[in-house]
Structures are given as structure tokens and as C-alpha cells.
Amino acid sequence: xxxxxxxxxxxxxxxxxxxxxxxxxxxxxxxxxxxxxxxxxxxxxxxxxxxxxxxxxxxxxxxxxxxxxxxxxxxxxxxxxxxxxxxxxxxxxxxxxxxxxxxxxxxxxxxxxxxxxxxxxxxxxxxxxxxxxxxxxxxxxxxxxxxxxxxxxxxxxx
Length: 158
Hints:
This protein is an alpha+beta fold. It has helices spanning 6-17, 23-30, 34-46, 79-87, 113-124, 147-152; strands spanning 66-74, 92-97, 104-110, 129-136.
């Protein structure tokens, strides 16, 4: 991935504020030509700077209001197989390999406590999963955000 410059950051900031802005509207807001904005947008897309649209859909609107984080302890030689099985569970929104006592941290959603119990059982039934620890998300204190990093600018040290 190439380094982002000030123009890229301004463009991303404008998109963060209003992701439905057209190329023409972005050009007007930023004082750039339409071609410049279009070229920058294309390059950012090619370099996979943008996350998928599905990350903006609220699972609660789909009937999954309960969010939880499941710490999964695994038999390390089976990590890839376990990851493949986790990916087949629709309620597992994302999973990370982590340091610490657990090996995987999965963010899951469910219809409620009974459904979460079922999902946890499905995870425990995966060959190589040794145990799980589940934490309910009580309230989202800081929603996903990127604007503070955009405002900070590009870090080039390191």
C-alpha cells in the first residue's frame, strides 16, 4: 500500500462525513477537479483502502441485537481448520488471532441469550477447540471510527 498524502486524507475525511457524496460533490467540497477525485478514488479502491459496505449494516436491524466477544482456546496445530469452521458460522462477524491466554477472539451476534448459548455450543463442538470464555457487549461506548486518525494525518515514522 502506498503512503496516503494530504489530498487522500482530505478525500477520506469528506467521505467519512458523508459517504454518499458524488465525485462531483467531493470535488466541489475539496476544491479539486472531478478527474483528480475520480483518479484518487480509483487508486484507493485498487489499494483496498475502503472496507466492504457490509461493515455499515447494523446486525440488530437483521434481528441480532445481542453482541458478544468469545475468547476461544484452541489446539494450535488445528488453528486453520478451526478458523475455517468459524467462518461457516453466520453469527461470527469477525475473528482475530490474539496474544494472551486465548488464541482467537471472535465477535458474534445473536438473537438473545438462548441463541448465544447455541452459538457457543457450535463453537465448542469444533474439533480442536478446547474451551471458550464469553463476554457480553453491554453497550458500545466508542463506535468504530477512523476520523481521529485522518485528522492526525499520515505517520511516516517506522
